[in-house]
Design goal:
The protein is an all-alpha fold. The chain has one domain (7-177): Butyryl-CoA Dehydrogenase, subunit A, domain 3, CATH 1.20.140.160. It is built from ten helices and no strands. Helix 3 crosses helix 4 and helix 7 crosses helix 10. It is elongated, with a radius of gyration of 17 Å.
Length: 179
């Protein structure tokens, strides 16, 4: 077995009955999906629950995935839909932002930004409207392109660009008010 199998190959193997292939997909995407959900919800327990449910639903509905090479986008779409169906959760609290910095994102630790600035940005992100927060997290924290985000959020690219512009403007204003 080669070690760098693509998502498409793993999906096809899982559909062929190889459970280990789906386990590899879980291993590959679990951390990124959990980090996204943690930043989106601001709550470890809720993020874990949605993450588990998203993987379960993706496994049960794997045969429905038409573009097998886009497993990650499809998985994130499932998670966003689960989050949106139960948005009665309270908004993330600023105190929860400390746990958001424990997410294990390598890009965070490699960035020269001060710890205080990182916490300020994370706090501001947690205060964004959910639609704006989703776009910021997918684009800047997880590196999705607009066409992928469009599929995940079921939203036109133009709307996503508008939301991202608005979110960045709100973040900029929030940072300037903290100076």
């Amino acid at each position: 077995m080669k070690t760098a199998e693509t998502d498409k190959e793993l999906v096809e193997q899982a559909l062929g009955g190889r459970v280990e292939a789906f386990n590899l997909l879980v291993w590959r995407w679990q951390r990124q999906l959990y980090n996204f959900l943690l930043r989106l919800t601001g709550n470890r327990s809720v993020a874990e629950d949605i993450c588990q449910e998203a993987f379960l639903r993706s496994y049960l509905n794997l045969k429905e995935l038409r573009e097998r090479e886009r497993f990650a986008s499809w998985l994130f779409r499932i998670a966003v839909n689960l989050y949106r169906t139960d948005r009665r959760r309270p908004a993330p609290l600023a105190a929860d932002c400390a746990e958001l910095s424990d997410s294990g994102n390598a890009r965070d630790s490699a960035h020269p930004m001060s710890r205080e600035m990182q916490l300020a940005i994370r706090t501001l992100i947690s205060r964004l409207e959910p639609e704006l927060r989703e776009v910021v997290l997918l684009r800047f924290f997880h590196g999705f392109q607009f066409d992928e985000m469009s599929g995940i959020l079921d939203c036109p690219v133009g709307t996503l660009k508008s939301r991202l512009y608005k979110a960045v403007d709100e973040l900029r204003t929030g940072l300037e008010s903290q100076k």
